[in-house]
UniProtKB/TrEMBL annotation:
<feature type="active site" description="Charge relay system">
    <location>
        <position position="74"/>
    </location>
</feature>
<keyword id="KW-0436">Ligase</keyword>
<dbReference type="Pfam" id="PF01425">
    <property type="entry name" value="Amidase"/>
</dbReference>
<dbReference type="InterPro" id="IPR004412">
    <property type="entry name" value="GatA"/>
</dbReference>
<dbReference type="InterPro" id="IPR023631">
    <property type="entry name" value="Amidase_dom"/>
</dbReference>
<protein>
    <recommendedName>
        <fullName>Glutamyl-tRNA(Gln) amidotransferase subunit A</fullName>
        <ecNumber>6.3.5.7</ecNumber>
    </recommendedName>
</protein>
<keyword id="KW-0067">ATP-binding</keyword>
<dbReference type="InterPro" id="IPR036928">
    <property type="entry name" value="AS_sf"/>
</dbReference>
<comment type="similarity">
    <text>Belongs to the amidase family. GatA subfamily.</text>
</comment>
<keyword id="KW-0648">Protein biosynthesis</keyword>
<dbReference type="InterPro" id="IPR000120">
    <property type="entry name" value="Amidase"/>
</dbReference>
<feature type="active site" description="Acyl-ester intermediate">
    <location>
        <position position="173"/>
    </location>
</feature>
<feature type="active site" description="Charge relay system">
    <location>
        <position position="149"/>
    </location>
</feature>
<comment type="subunit">
    <text>Heterotrimer of A, B and C subunits.</text>
</comment>
<dbReference type="InterPro" id="IPR020556">
    <property type="entry name" value="Amidase_CS"/>
</dbReference>
<feature type="domain" description="Amidase">
    <location>
        <begin position="21"/>
        <end position="491"/>
    </location>
</feature>
<keyword id="KW-0547">Nucleotide-binding</keyword>
Length: 502
């Protein structure tokens, strides 16, 4: 399987050039993106300029460690001079004035950033249908979704428009689309990768991580993304391990926890059987399968959608139509308010009654109109839900209780990791669903994250690896989760699983 290391060997020998690699990807994007809709913007001229500069460095022997890797970037991560819209009308013309830390790291190692990828608005969704750019479509079958919220990033890799891509994962937004599109998707431990320059959805959950065509490239990319960052107080100072070396030395002697809670009701029978068959192969290859239990996992969906929406309602309060982003037409607002006052005065009959009427000030109306026009339905739904659970009289009953359950879920994982190296599960209960199928059923949409959200609640790491192709022709994935900062373990398990398919 082709990976960065094999590409770099060809670049060093002169058999290939970065400029040619980029032209091939630009041509694929030109031919494919109109159907898949993975990229929302690609600057061909800038890509060619990057490629020429990096080829010169290769020729001079001064190229960085990621020279030759072509990367797509989810449109929620800041790149200087590029639009960062979060697939939302409220930021449709916003241009970043700085690079996110992960972007700086990639540029410093001479990776090529080929374009911005589609996503659910503000990373809120599981299908990449909640977007101002129109839905992304699954490369395996364009009638089906790509997953979300990092669906464009997953589809770009699956459709061979780039080597790797960056996504963000708040409740499964890297791993679930990786499963739906048949690629590798890695969510690192919370704080392992800097969030500086990532537009916030839920700050205690959000993680940046890679998509790739193979486990080796995911390990290489994570190695260069991870590390302490003075610009992010939540980032960890724990030393970064040599992930690529760990993958190369992968052994079969892993203890793999198999929780009954992840293989029960709601899981597609064919996916269950496919994963169980592969686990038996791993067992023959030297792995030990150990039954474990995660008793509080059943509360995961409810807990996550209380806590994440609460944080979202707070984070998205900054989009008020004043400081930046979409602003409603103030002149029209003033005209509307003037007409409302005239009509009320006519109906009220007295100035006292008019004064008692509930009419917004121009500023309050500007806030309301800007946010109403700028945010999509799903974002509004989550803001309202988050505001509700934080409101007086409901805070303790919902938000406070959810924080306690979050701690219990974390403890379940800590207990399980006393017995095993990694925990295995399906990545999603089904393969990708049809476009539009769940748009009117938010609860069903949320249930697509049932196997992934626990890792975000617990702050641990997880990776989705292609596990097979369903009889319906769509891919599905298997997820390995590891304890905090045990990325080496999940990468080894993923590499061993991947080798079964070679």
């Amino acid at each position: 399987m082709k990976n960065l290391l094999s590409v770099q060997e060809q670049l060093q020998s002169g058999k290939r050039k970065v400029t040619d690699i980029c032209e091939e990807y630009l041509q694929t994007i030109k031919e494919t993106n109109s159907e898949v809709n993975a990229f929302v913007s690609v600057d061909d001229e800038d890509v060619r300029k990057q490629a020429t500069n990096i080829q010169q460095k290769i020729d001079a022997g001064t190229a960085g460690k990621l020279a030759g890797m072509v990367i797509g970037v989810k449109d929620v991560i800041c790149e200087k001079g590029k639009k960062v819209t979060c697939a939302s009308h409220i930021l449709h013309n916003f241009e970043s004035v700085y690079d996110a830390t992960v972007i700086k790291k990639l540029k410093n190692e001479d990776a090529i950033l080929i374009g911005r990828t589609n996503m659910d608005e503000f990373a809120m969704g599981s299908s990449t249908e909640n977007t101002i750019y129109g839905p992304s479509k699954n490369p395996a079958n364009s009638d089906f979704v790509v997953g979300g919220s990092s669906g464009g990033s997953a589809a770009a890799v699956a459709a061979n428009m780039c080597d790797t891509s960056l996504g963000s994962d708040t409740g499964g937004s890297i791993r679930q689309p990786a499963s739906y599109c048949g690629v590798v998707g890695l969510k690192p431990t919370y704080s392992r990768v800097s969030r500086y320059g990532l537009v916030a959805y839920a700050s205690s959950f959000d993680c940046i991580g890679p998509f790739s065509k193979n486990v080796t490239d995911a390990a290489i990319l994570l190695e260069h993304l991870a590390g302490d960052d003075p610009m992010d107080n939540s980032s960890s100072a724990k030393p970064v391990e040599n992930y690529s070396e760990a993958v190369a030395e992968s052994s079969g002697k892993l203890k793999i926890g198999v929780p009954k809670e992840y293989f029960g009701e709601g899981l597609d029978d064919e996916i269950r059987q496919g994963i169980e068959d592969r686990l038996k192969e791993l067992e023959k290859d030297g792995a030990e399968l150990v039954p474990v239990t995660l008793p509080h996992m059943k509360y995961g969906i409810a807990t996550y959608y209380i806590l994440a929406t609460a944080e979202a309602s707070s984070n998205l309060a900054r989009y008020d139509g004043i400081r930046y982003g979409h602003r409603a037409d103030f002149e029209k607002i003033e005209e509307e308010l003037s007409l409302e006052r005239k009509e009320l005065k006519k109906a009220a009959g007295t100035s006292t009654a008019l004064e008692a009427a509930d009419i917004d000030s121009p500023l309050i109306r500007l806030y309301k109109k800007s946010r109403t026009e700028g945010f999509g339905t799903e974002v509004k739904r989550r803001i309202i839900l988050g505001t509700y659970v934080l409101s007086a009289g409901y805070y303790d009953a919902y938000y406070g209780k959810a924080q306690k359950v979050r701690r219990l879920i974390k403890q379940d994982f800590l207990d399980a990791f006393q017995q095993v190296d990694v925990i295995v599960s399906p990545t999603a209960p089904t393969t990708a669903f049809k476009l539009g199928e769940n748009q009117d059923d938010p609860l069903q949409m949320y249930l697509n994250d049932v196997y992934t959200i626990s890792a975000n609640l617990a702050g641990i790491c997880g990776i989705s690896v292609p596990a097979g192709t369903h009889s319906n022709g769509l891919p599905y994935g298997v997820q390995f989760m590891g304890n905090t900062f045990h990325e080496v373990d999940i990468l080894r398990a993923a590499k061993q699983f991947e080798s079964l398919q070679s």
